[in-house]
């Protein structure tokens, strides 16, 4: 029975100890909180990486409590979770040391708590006080309103020493966002040459030459195909065939009718020669006429090719930008790793110096004790 009672009483004591350890681990001093805010002010890279944690959620350009690339509208920076963890780890090392009890999650949660407290106290202030720091309030000592606001701000800083520094960080971010919105260009981006060509191609007349791009005569094969489609040939195998061809394709004879040398005798000569060559060319079959869909398809070929080229260029540019962003992220990670390694080396050197100092002090104390013992032994020997 005694053993069972001891076992029953051992459980709550262990729970109490764990609760005490958690309380000790969660305690933050005012100096540590102020050091955290100063690190954010002095390091713009920390600000950018932890933007979704420290900036208040009542800003217009924020959506949800997600990573920075999903929070900020129009942001071109991609913040990876590895970068957030590395920055939080560096902050822990700089504030609490390598052997501190705090972790990355502790810094994350406490920074969110500071943001919540900041928003609550800022919401209870006057509109003028919300846009001012303590040094701005104390500049005019004769103004009664300023003195009253400065007294309230000092009372707040006695409870939360970090509040004014946090307020400065948020105000600078707000001013920067306003300036960028004012300086943003309102004009439309310049159109690409492909888009201009596609627009011009849609307005060209039907008799234009889309394939002939220079005086050297580029794309001659395509030009011949287009001429065949637009101006079909007339085969003079017989008089009836000539008449049927003239009825079907009057545009073929349009240029000949306008010539001054064209006369009735030439027409009779053409018919006579056609009748003589009827027997020799009777076995030759006339070529089949192309379907009207081929004409429409050939007329749409230039615009389709330009659209595909523009799409491929856009995809290639997007891939290049993605590669550049990934390279920048890798460079940033390398720099942060080097910084953490330097900090670790410095901390190790300091720790080794401290241990060496403690060891030397202990050796000195041991030497003093040994000398005292030797002195007492010598006295005893001489007394005997």
UniProtKB/TrEMBL annotation:
Tagged with keyword Transport: no
Compositionally skewed regions (Polar residues) per UniProt: 180-190, 209-218
Coiled-coil features, chain-numbered ranges: 330-369
Tree of life domain: Eukaryota
Residues covered by region (Disordered): 1-26, 176-229, 273-303
Organism lineage: Eukaryota, Fungi, Dikarya, Basidiomycota, Ustilaginomycotina
Ranges of biased composition (kind: Basic and acidic residues): 194-203
Keywords linked to the UniProt accession: Coiled coil
Name of this chain's protein: Uncharacterized protein
Basic residues bias spans: 287-298
Keyword ATP-binding: no
């Amino acid at each position: 029975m005694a053993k069972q009672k001891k076992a029953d009483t051992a459980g709550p004591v262990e729970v109490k100890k764990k609760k005490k350890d958690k309380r000790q681990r969660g305690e933050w001093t005012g100096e540590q909180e102020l050091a955290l805010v100063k690190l954010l002010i002095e390091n713009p890279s920390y600000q950018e990486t932890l933007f979704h944690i420290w900036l208040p959620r009542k800003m217009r350009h924020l959506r949800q409590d997600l990573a920075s690339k999903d929070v900020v509208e129009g942001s071109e920076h991609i913040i990876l979770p590895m970068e957030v963890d590395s920055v939080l780890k560096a902050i822990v090392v700089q504030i609490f040391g390598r052997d501190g009890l705090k972790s990355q999650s502790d810094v994350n949660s406490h920074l969110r708590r500071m943001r919540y407290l900041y928003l609550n106290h800022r919401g209870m202030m006057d509109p003028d006080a919300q846009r001012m720091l303590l040094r701005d309030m104390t500049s005019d000592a004769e103004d009664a309103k300023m003195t009253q606001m400065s007294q309230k701000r000092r009372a707040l800083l006695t409870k939360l020493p970090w509040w004014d520094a946090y307020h400065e960080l948020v105000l600078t971010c707000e001013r920067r966002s306003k300036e960028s919105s004012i300086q943003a260009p309102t004009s439309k981006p310049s159109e690409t040459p492909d888009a201009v060509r596609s627009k011009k191609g849609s307005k060209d007349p039907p008799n234009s030459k889309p394939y002939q791009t220079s005086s050297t005569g580029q794309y001659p094969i395509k030009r011949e195909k287009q001429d065949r489609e637009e101006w079909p040939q007339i085969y003079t195998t017989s008089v009836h065939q000539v008449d049927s061809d003239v009825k079907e394709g009057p545009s073929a004879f349009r240029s000949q009718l306008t010539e001054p040398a064209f006369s009735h005798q030439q027409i009779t000569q053409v018919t006579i020669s056609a009748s003589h060559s009827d027997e020799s060319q009777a076995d030759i079959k006339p070529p089949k006429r192309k379907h009207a869909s081929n004409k429409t398809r050939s007329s749409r070929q230039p615009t389709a090719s330009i659209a595909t080229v523009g799409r491929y260029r856009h995809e290639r540019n997007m891939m290049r930008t993605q590669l550049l962003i990934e390279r920048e992220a890798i460079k940033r990670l390398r720099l942060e790793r080097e910084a953490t390694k330097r900090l670790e080396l410095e901390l190790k050197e300091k720790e080794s110096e401290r241990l060496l100092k403690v060891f030397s002090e202990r050796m000195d104390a041991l030497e003093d004790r040994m000398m005292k013992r030797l002195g007492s032994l010598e006295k005893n020997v001489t007394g005997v």
